[in-house]
Fold this sequence. Notes:
The structure is a homodimer of 432-residue chains. Chain A is α+β, with helices and mostly antiparallel strands and 432 residues long. Chain A has helices spanning 14-33, 47-54, 80-90, 133-148, 164-174, 178-189, 196-205, 210-221, 235-241, 243-254, 300-305, 318-327, 350-362, 376-385, 396-401, 422-430, and strands at 37-38, 44-46, 64-66, 72-75, 98-107, 119-128, 157-163, 261-263, 277-283, 292-296, 311-317, 340-344, 367-369, 390-394, 403-408, 413-418.
Amino acid sequence: MATQPLPGFRDFYPTDFAFRAHIFETWRRTCQRYGFEEYDGPPLEPLELFTTKSGDEIVGQLYNFTDKGGREVALRPEMTPTVARMVAARAGGMKKPIRWFSIAQHFRYERQQRGRLREFYQLNADLIGETGPLADAELIALSIDLVRGFGLGSGDVRVRLSDRRLIRRAFELRGLTEAQQQAVMQVYDKFGRVPQDVSLLKLQEAGLASGDIDALLRLAGVRDFAQLGEGTPDAASLLEAAQPLVEARNALVSMGLGEWIDLDLTIVRGLAYYTGTVFELFDAGRTLRAIAGGGRYDGLLQQLGGVDLPAAGFAIGDVVLGELLRERGLEPEAPAPVQVFVAGVTPEDTPEVLATAHRLREAGFRVEYALRPEAVGKQLKLADARRASLAVVIGPDDRARGEVQLKDLRHKTQLAVAVAELQAALTAALAT
Amino acid sequence: MATQPLPGFRDFYPTDFAFRAHIFETWRRTCQRYGFEEYDGPPLEPLELFTTKSGDEIVGQLYNFTDKGGREVALRPEMTPTVARMVAARAGGMKKPIRWFSIAQHFRYERQQRGRLREFYQLNADLIGETGPLADAELIALSIDLVRGFGLGSGDVRVRLSDRRLIRRAFELRGLTEAQQQAVMQVYDKFGRVPQDVSLLKLQEAGLASGDIDALLRLAGVRDFAQLGEGTPDAASLLEAAQPLVEARNALVSMGLGEWIDLDLTIVRGLAYYTGTVFELFDAGRTLRAIAGGGRYDGLLQQLGGVDLPAAGFAIGDVVLGELLRERGLEPEAPAPVQVFVAGVTPEDTPEVLATAHRLREAGFRVEYALRPEAVGKQLKLADARRASLAVVIGPDDRARGEVQLKDLRHKTQLAVAVAELQAALTAALAT
């Protein structure tokens, strides 16, 4: 019998689970502060839901099969088609804007590599029914707070911000063909990571005029809105197209998040899919894969769900963020499973041990006791192994006096406590 | 494009999700009070993991397929094989007893009916490495507290308690053949739900002597430990075999949970699988399917994972429990997504609205604001739609004075508050 999970799948032992729960809880709390409501859909969906969005090419990366009812189905590789389906089914009855998030497991049959498994958890946040730059800023702010919540700062993570409308304007101003646009986007995607002359050659091969090449490579290097129109006759037109992005950026500055943002027009995220703002979160050193990414996709709900609602959203995964947190020493210690261990001195004390343990659990304490008769010393060893802070020891004499012995296992102290005062004494001791 | 999920699969819209989260959170808190640690495994596992436990017959009920690497895989129909696999991989390094729980989605390709979907969530709790009746009692107590946590009482839910060792002893005392044992278990499974003469006929057909039939039907009706040995020459032997069950029951009485328990030897749960105590939780009226069930399966970890550790455990599902809670009116109202709505009077107030909203989110409030310029009245309508309790209204005059207007949307009151005192004022207002 195999003891390993499938390749690319993770077992979450309690320590791993505690780390995952820390990530999910931090995310959940942050989304709720933004007024986002949590939803979930099935991990298994009709295959068509995913091919409608991404084409048949996606099937090669899916866990797909025919179910016993002859349905073509697939484990979800992403959440957006499910959101579109769910919103479409009830679009009329829902107050806009819809603020929704989910934290769900996704599946892709891909080659494993660092930061990429065959299953991963992803938070998806969508803001549906609103077109303006404030909606974009709201999502970008949320994505920043989703990493800030772990103690990461703007020196650890950078937000790269672009806008399809601005890129499209730059292409239109130069009358680029579809093939030339693709060539530029491919050069942008590798910008700063391949030598400049390789980029140059690629654009020349695509038949771009040298003036256009200069202008587009200059744009790729712009990191500041003030430089957008510098040294180009198209300044006014470019700046006009940049207006929504400028407003989104200004909103982020008002929220105190301006220092996280880099203008970066080289972000390439499915050219056909996004219609406006696009953004990605990366570790500042760029040694890891993207932490999060998203943008505005105003046509997608129409295409997927048949309802014409503007929408923007993003996803953040647990794998790359988890790597970064571990790298930065921001992985919290897993909480001790037990706070109070209840021990009995003789077998006759067992009923009182059971009654006490259950009463303390009722009161909200995390409590354990030995499940077989054992010497007190052995019971206290188990208490230590379970990282209990306190032990309540009950013996025949204690019972006769209506007392228990309260041992502080951290400070090696002990005192007698009246049964009626035990809960208050435990609360006080745990607070020290 | 379909707007529906696959048959037997659920969409969790925010209201549904809130109910599910209420169930999971109540479960999680309760398990933690028992010192249980949460783990999770992959929803997709090697098919062999499930057929090793349940035989090839199980495949007909699975979502199974061949993955793109040629592996035979299946969506998990239950958690126990995964636990066995995970514990086996690290058995040596783990302090016993192991107290583990998981809350995970499971999948079965079955005919849909009331209380049975094709996916369901299930809490699994296992106590591994301990053989005694106190371990069994600990699990039964946990299962009771998992329903008590929702406000259900012993008048709503009953625990039916049996023991394989006791049943086996009753069979041995009468020298029943394997086929006769099967016949008795089939009669037990339907006991009280079919006429007595049907049961009688069935046992006669299996060739049981009339004295054995009388004794076994009497045992099926016993609900009290005191009646176990009544009117039978086998009393001493039966009572000896019942000793672990009596001790488990006594432990539950010590915990104050005795009133939940019914002795009921007619529980049939995979005769080969369980080796000792078995139990099930049912709604008191028996109108629904079982809420929870489990018991001791000391040989299973050896069979599945190759490590010889005694183990007991149970599972409780979200579907039947959810039905019961709805039936009893114990479904809580979903919390309002927004506590504080921040509104601006003029477009010039937007930066201050954004700054205030972000500051309040930082402080932990659930905050929303309009994502486009709108009249205050329209902004407050959105605040109402989002069930916000409070609104903070910011206008040019307020800004000049360093103040905001705090409106209580529930009590229709309003007062001016200095910006520096806003958080304290909101906290106070929300507490009313």
